[in-house]
Design goal:
elongated; single chain; alpha/beta; disordered N terminus; Trna Endonuclease, Chain: A, domain 1
């Protein structure tokens, strides 16, 4: 089993624009004043390549996770796994803040539709509160669809409330099928 390393700052930041801007400035310096900028350029190029490699390896490890590894993840790692899964399904994925998220952990966009997701990495059954949280998030995020995704199962009250509020519940079996079909 591959041990997943988690950098709490990178869990939220998937943006490489800072690296791009830094690289652009160094490249500009090499082209205008090469004798001053050649060493920083080579060092920067190495750092950028290393960071891209680390990100690739981390995403690769997430993509190869099986259900046993998912069961061992913490909540943040589970959200990162779901980010990779839904990206492989063609969604643009945005992570919400860790606190004050108004009931949604991920916001998906595809073909003009928005989906708000509550992610629950649980050992027991997911209860009614997860469904209540995502129902509350629907208007805040102007979501067309709302889902709760877990590595576990749902309680009867949770499935009843989800049914009357059009909440899609993705449980353990469907998560296994989706990850086997779209990741690896």
């Amino acid at each position: 089993m591959t041990k997943l390393k988690l950098n709490k700052k990178s869990a939220k930041k998937n943006d490489t624009s800072a690296i791009f801007i830094f690289g652009f400035v160094i490249l500009w310096g090499v082209l205008t004043v090469p004798q001053v900028f050649i060493a920083p350029f080579i060092i920067s190029l190495f750092v950028v390549c290393f960071l891209m490699y680390v990100k690739f390896k981390k995403n690769s490890a997430l993509r190869k996770s099986n259900i046993e590894q998912i069961d061992l993840m913490n909540g943040v790692q589970f959200e990162e796994f779901l980010t990779e899964l839904f990206k492989s399904l063609g969604y643009r994925v945005k992570n919400t803040p860790r606190s004050g998220d108004y009931g949604a952990d991920l916001i998906l966009r595809k073909k003009g539709r928005t989906v708000a997701i509550q992610a629950k990495r649980y050992k027991g059954n997911v209860g009614i509160s997860a469904v209540q949280e995502i129902i509350g998030a629907q208007k805040y995020y102007n979501a067309d669809d709302i889902w709760v995704v877990t590595n576990s199962y749902y309680s009867k009250p949770a499935t009843n409330l989800a049914a009357v509020n059009n909440v899609k519940l993705i449980g353990r079996e469907e998560l296994i099928k989706l990850s086997q079909r779209h990741l690896r």
